[in-house]
Design brief:
Blueprint (H helix, E strand, L loop, with lengths): L4 E2 L16 E2 L10 E5 L3 H11 L2 E6 L14 H9 L4 E3 L2 H10 L7 E3 L18 E4 L5 H14 L5 E4 L5 H10 L2 E5 L8 H7 L3 E5 L13 E3 L5 H16 L9 H10 L2 H16 L25 H14 L4
Parallel strand pairs: 1-2, 3-4, 4-5, 5-6, 7-8, 7-9, 9-10, 10-11
């Protein structure tokens, strides 16, 4: 068991869209022996505070294309300073690891590959397929609109196209279980999960891997389209739809790929990677931090006060969750 807690950017904030049992603390609760894991987009800002204090931290890079992202007032030097002083750099994908090494070749030995899990009790095949193409319009929306416009004229009779937008996880999974083709318009992604979820629901996934998805983008479950090649995109989806219209609804050829995805995105794989990270920290030199200032002194400032709007919104969410008498 790993003793851990969450510090949010805004003091007192809780995620209203996800249930969790994680312990929430504030920056006032930090101990000299604590080890912080920072998101890459906050690393430059927070490292300027943590390094002078002697507090140890690692950086979790969920998107290698965001390495230079930082808060207003931070510079490229601040970004470099954050990575140079990190105990470890957690990477979500092979593509992200390569990008970290590209920017910081001298820090390659600090990279720890981690994995995320996809709940296969939610994303799976239940045998309710119909002639449906699904996609998410949020990424590369202009590409998606152009492809959909063309496909409406070219898909075989009886086929439908549905956008997955503004839905919760249960609704997304239900639609993916019905569809037979999922179109991926991923942008620059650290590791895009919607294509994985679609494939686990028995879809043929056609489109962009976004960089991070390259490691799992294997035929027949996935078909790659070069970014911007909209004609090829339309013709490949059209061809797949015609094949599926003239064949028995048999997912046998997809099962080996689905099995690989279930193994790669399993909770066990995720926990094994986190344990490797914790074991790595045991080899790290001890913190040089001194006890944090007592009450009445100037505390370490990692968090902002929650805005009134957020506070009121959370009260409404919690009220809706409260069981009735």
């Amino acid at each position: 068991m790993i003793d851990s807690a969450i510090i949010h950017d805004r003091r007192g904030y809780e995620y209203p869209w996800a249930e969790h049992a994680a312990h929430l603390i504030s920056d006032r609760d930090l101990r000299p022996t604590d080890h912080l894991v920072l998101p890459e987009i906050k690393a430059a800002q927070l490292a300027r505070i943590l390094v002078p204090r002697g507090l140890k931290y690692s950086i979790f890079v969920q998107n290698g294309y965001y390495l230079r992202d930082r808060d207003r007032g931070c510079t490229d030097d601040d970004v470099d300073h954050a990575y140079q002083n990190a105990s470890a750099i957690l990477s979500i994908s092979e593509d992200t690891s390569s990008l970290i090494s590209l920017h910081y070749p001298d820090l390659t030995s600090r990279i720890v590959r981690v994995f995320c899990s996809v709940d296969d009790s939610v994303f799976n095949v239940d045998g309710k397929k119909r002639n449906l193409v699904t996609y998410m319009p949020r990424k590369n929306g202009a590409h998606a609109a152009a492809v959909v416009f063309a496909l409406k004229k070219r898909l075989p009779p009886g086929w439908e196209i549905r956008a997955i937008d503004g839905m919760n996880q249960t609704e997304v999974a239900a639609l993916l279980k019905e569809s037979r083709i999922f179109m991926s318009f991923s942008g620059l992604e650290g590791l895009g999960l919607p294509p994985v979820e679609a494939a686990l629901c028995g879809n043929y996934v056609i489109g962009y891997h976004g960089g991070g998805g390259r490691e799992y983008w294997a035929s027949p479950n996935f078909e790659e389209i070069a970014v911007g090649d909209l004609e090829a995109f339309v013709r490949r989806v059209e061809a797949r739809a015609h094949l599926l219209s003239n064949s028995v609804d048999d997912l046998a050829e997809l099962e080996p790929g689905m099995a690989r995805l279930r193994a790669n995105f399993s909770k066990a794989n995720e926990l094994d990677a986190l344990q490797r990270f914790v074991d790595r920290l045991k080899e790290d030199p001890p913190s040089t931090a001194t006890p944090l200032p007592a009450v009445g002194s100037t505390p370490i400032r990692l968090q902002k006060r929650m805005r009134l709007g957020w506070w009121l919104a959370l009260r409404r969410v919690r009220a809706r969750k409260r069981p009735s008498a």
